[in-house]
Amino acid sequence: MFYQHLQGAIEALLFASGQPLPAAKIAQILDIHVDHVHALIVEMTGIMVSEQRGLTIVEVAGGYQLCTKPSLVDIVSKLAELQDSKLSAAALETLAIVAFKQPVTKQEIESIRGVKADRVITTLLDRTLIKEVGRKEAVGRPILYGTTNEFLQCFGLNSLDDLPAIASLLPGTETEE
């Protein structure tokens, strides 16, 4: 491929960004067509898979990101144990509600969970997993919450369309593979 000399530049951009970087932005920075960026990344990913390398490129949250290979998760998790910051069950429940029902108000979350959600919502906002997305056209104009790109990135999703169907998560429901 004519643009192979740009593979190092793409790798450097992905590393420096630390966040998913859209192909269009990479193309703009390198002054090449977006199709060439996609082709280069496919080639780079193939090279990274075949070699004994610790990183790979994944498509997530509408862009590309340099990530640790899944086979090395155990080793990297040892580093993460030093700064373990797991979400509580209440936070995961609330995050699931927001992900599947968004946009959703605090009152709707509390109605589903049956308990107050103030502290959990604050935690999720602080971790930038959810954000305020507007106001509901109702009495008091309550805040509407939705997920963020951080949420997509954290859970390895490219878009909300990648979430499983709610019916497939219900007990006693079989999904066809």
UniProtKB/TrEMBL annotation:
Pfam families, per the entry: SMC_ScpB (PF04079)
This chain's protein is named Segregation and condensation protein B
Q: Which PANTHER family match?
A: SEGREGATION AND CONDENSATION PROTEIN B
Q: Which SUPFAM superfamilies match?
A: Winged helix' DNA-binding domain
InterPro entries xref list: ScpB_csome_segregation (IPR005234), WH-like_DNA-bd_sf (IPR036388), WH_DNA-bd_sf (IPR036390)
Give the UniProt keywords, A-Z. Answer: Cell cycle, Cell division, Chromosome partition, Cytoplasm
Q: Does the keyword Metal-binding apply?
A: no
Give start-end ranges for the coiled-coil region(s). Answer: none
